[in-house]
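FORM 7B: Structural annotation worksheet

SECTION A. Query
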Amino acid sequence: MQRQQQKQQPSGFSVFMANVPLSLTNQGLKTQLSPFLKDLLVEDWDCDKPRGKPFGVLNFLHRKEGQAFLNKHGEQPIPGALFSGKAKTRARLFLLQQPVYCRLGNKEVDPTLLKVLEKNAEDRMHPIEDVEETHKHRPVAFETQRLSCGHYDYPKGILTYTPDIQWSASGVAKFARNILIVSFRHSLGQIRLEIPYRTIHEVVISNRPTSLFLTLWEPPRIFLLAHQGADSESLGAFGNMRINTGPGLPRPGERERLGEIPHENADHGRILGQSLIYCITLSPEEFASRIERLRRENEYLEFLPHNVPIASFGWNSMTDGLVSFASTIAACSQAIPFDILYQFQALVQNGYLLPHTVQNLLFRLQKHKSSLASEDAETTEPGALPAPLPFSAPAVKKMFSQIPFPGPYTEAKNFMPDEIWSLLETNEKQIQQGLIRELFSERARQNLTMVYKVQVTPTRIIFNGPEPEAKNRILRKFPRHTGYFARIQFCDEDGQDLFYNPKGEYTDSCRTLSSIPSQFPHYLFNSALYPFKIKFKKVLLNGFPIAGRIYKFLGFSHSSLRSHAVWFMAGFVDDNKQLRSYATVIPELGDFRGIRSPARWYVILNAPKKPQRNYNFIGLYANLFEVSAARIGQAFSETPIAVNLDDLGTRVEFIPDVKSRDRSRVFSDGIGTISRDLLEAIYDIMPLKSRTATCLQIRWAGAKGMLSLDDTLEGNVMRVRDSMIKFQSPDTQNLEICDVANKPIPLVLNRQMIKILEDMQVPNSWFFKAQNRELNRLRKITAVTNNTVVFLRRQKVAEQMGFSQFIRRLHQLGFDYKKDAFLCSIIEAVVLREVRLLKHKSRIPVEHGVTLFGVMDEFGYLGDEEVFITFDKQEGSSYPNLHNRLVIVTRSPALHPGDIQIRRAIVPPRGHPLRSLTNCIAFSQKGDRDLPSQLSGGDLDGDIYNVIWDPIAVDGCTREFAPADYPRVLPLDIGRDVRSADMTDFFVDFMATDQLGLIAVKHIILADLHDAGTVHDECKLLAEMHSTAVDYSKTGIPVNMSRMATLRTRYRPDFLAPAPPANIVDKTEIRFEAPVAPSAEADEDDDAGPRHKFYKSDKILGELYRAIDEKKIWRDDIHLAVNHHGASLWDELFVYINRQCEENLEDVDWRRALDDAHNIRQVYDDMIWMATIDYSDHSSKGITELEVFTGTIFNKSGIQTRRQRDTSTRLKDEFDRITKWIEGLIRKKSLGEPLDGTGDDAQDRYYEELANVGTEFTALELSIACLHAGVAGGVRRSSSGRNSGDFESFKVIAAHCALRELEIAVKQKEMAEGAAFVGGGFPGVRSGRT
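SECTION B. Predicted structure
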């Protein structure tokens, strides 16, 4: 104990500094102090300067070093000089030519800061390998004179820049490590543009005048800064400037995000999304030398020397072009189909083509249709269909991959209307081959429909899609009018969520402009987002036009609210000739009157707990009806399966809820029952893999929740409880199934669970054993091919095409997949993802644990404190005997120490109806309080629960804590019926004030800092606030953030440090960014994110984190050195297949199938390209083929956002559909219902021969030809498109198809010859399943 106290005793030294220059930021002060401390050989120090304040604090790790600084630079008294009775002093430290008075601080150094400094010292003693020296990233700064934004055009075939808006921009353009910062003075303050290098396509250097022309993927981020918040370099260029700090402007030291660059006479916001060429006119002084240094220092940007002609200002302006284009769209909306017009409008709206170019095409298309109509009137019979247009919407959408950026090395013909028209006709010819019809049919079979997607960002509205979307009740109700519904995403320019900007501040001035109830003074709007609140509300209230239709707000749900998405709808006439709008669609769903809380509009019907598979949306009666959006959201839940109950003769019974003796607790909250007869009847409609489920998550009429099997019921019976019914609805015909409990979910720990288990005294050795088991497995994956195959199968990578079987087959044939970079990258990417989740999220698999849906014991067998756990045996494990054993039960998120409980597992005797259940945990209906509500406020309407029965963990829990019991928060009552404006206000306010993530991070930091962990009062307070934040979307009651004001978390444990950034380079190679050594002189603009300081955590999370060296594991165990020796893998494989054909078969002439093979390759590449765009966060910058193939969105930090996780799930499903379709084309099969099984036999059996396929060549010949086409490269894709280049995965699919067809052909020949075919089939290939 004495040694521990000695270790914890502060040894630091604090120096207070007065009269510090106001202009210095914290990093600026650090930079200024660095030379003085270097002279003293001091390395372990830190400083703290509040923004906009004239003082700071300098902290030292070692008292001796702090005293040495004070001895040299501390203030000195002036003999005989007094001021107010105190001795006057003189400064011995000058910063920016200003005297700074240093004296001994009156406070001890924060003990946590000492731990930070200790960690920095330790890191310095053990430097990271390959650390990049900071001096390599010295910024290059230019003096700016003017700034303009405009567009490139090609008058007379010559590239010309046309400025649309110009600013006198006397300031600085600074190229930092990863970002370009342009700062200049303005009458409102200082304007700052932030342009990350990843958003710059190219930089054109012009000498006449000395300028830089930037071609951007997206608009820059624009900020307004007060004078005193400016960086010193910019201030030096600007001189002294008086700033107007009136209401609504940022106070000194603050910054406000703007939606446009302010201009006195022009509206930058009108053309911001289309004018994406920015011209920065620079001072000619030292221009050439600085440009040379910039090109030498900067490795991220592409520089092109070219003197770009500049058109007269106002010539062919984008503003006039957009106005004229809008008129053209309105004029063409009656003649040109909506889907075609949508794509043309998207080409302009998203900045691909200029308005006048698309106008020319539309006029030509309209004229073409008019001429066809005239001919039809003279030559066709009455009632005949009109002649088709020369191209369809898919042909126009394909252009998004074909249109390049304009620039010095882009030919003018790419943007000529005649050339584009010819390209559209070529696209249409390829589409008319009909190869993609089967893919559309497969989507329909999987209950998908195509839905338009729109992104609303701070600067623009972007049109995307249509993209596959799961059907819901509304879309199913109007199957021929799904194009009138659109999903709207509010996001930042790069597609990511808009979050609180740490460089912005909360300001009271924002409150006066937001509709915030007076009883919530803590409800402050984030000034970093405030300007967009006005824009977003305008969009939500007024809607916007798309291709002649007006789309208006329809609603949102719990899940879509958290993802910042809503549904819009345009009016239409349905099949019954009735006019449909949001005012007529919603009333048919049910009775929703009397709701007085905006949040309650969707609270009841929030999304099922798997947001990647379920989206609930709400509706609004416009201003005519007062409805509950929560309840309406049920009609928008994503429901993959719909069953007609009337056809099955179903009897629906309504039964009461099971409650506690005092009636205060509901044990059956959200759970009903279903008879076996009805369940088996439903099985006939469900996929084979789901036909063992005994628990269903459902939507029916106005009810939602779970149905569990009750074997005591006879006939086709469904029982529904009161707690399941959210509103009355006449729509009782269809039972919609959201999810099924058809298999157990593997249990993985997370940080929150680990911290509470540590506080419950689970031994550290148990966590290390679980982590090391998984880590060793991951490290061995690439060492042995069999390990690779098992891993790929478990991860379900390209499962539909049998990728794991393909790798195994290559190995059996003696081929090394490591000779191909693309195959190596697939495996590397998936393994790296798992390693990073293990290290940076503590996602540790638990061998003796499982995650299951929760249900209730309907028969009263279980006693209080008892549970029944049942699940199918998992691969590679034995079924445990859990009878009469203690188990750990919890549910995520778990923040309160009582969110993890211990219960006794009981197994009923054989024949008991409970034993009929599978893949669920049944909770008791006895006792004073139901267990689900004790676990983070859970219920039984679809929640999943975690169970651990490992005896080391269970027996280690020597401490158990009482569960939280927070008072029920009633929904906000605004005192009148809810209106449309209330809903839109709530949605936008929620975007800006949702603090769920911030609270969770603060909780884990404080739980690590305090010895009591999660039991500490501060952690319990945060757990309660987190519960309020979770319910905020349901109740409308925001978290009182003032309660968190005293909970300071300035420093973070090391396990929260960001992962080393990794990027996908050249579309397939994963490469880590070189780490940069920390430096006091580092440029403040080199790090766009918050500068957190980290200490070495001595708790279990810190120890687990440091036990994994991901860079070493990557280098030694994951990263595969591609063997380039000799012929490529594909050439070897192609030679092998041809040799087998020559030796074992006759008349295999694959060359005659080459034309078809190239066509198949072409449509496959088109679908992959479409997936790269449709599933990218960015509206125009696609993801990589590697991400599509693995079904995982790659995040450079290694940790996906919630939206990226959801998107990855949908992406994987889409790639499975694409591969199933393309295999059908290659193997000349149609897509039927697949049979169960993982081997090739099962995959081969589910294909049925196409009736309309010609017999001019065999499936084997076509497969070999496709392999040749894949190896030879694509015939269409070029390097000119914005997301261009050949894809590589086609040859992988084609090779696997060829190997399987070869095996089948050899088998068939041997059988025909009467040979006994046993074992090998032909050399190197096994028969049967692999």
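SECTION C. Observations
The CA atoms of residues 173 and 182 lie 4 Å apart. The longest strand covers residues 160-175.

SECTION D. Sign-off
Analyst initials: ____
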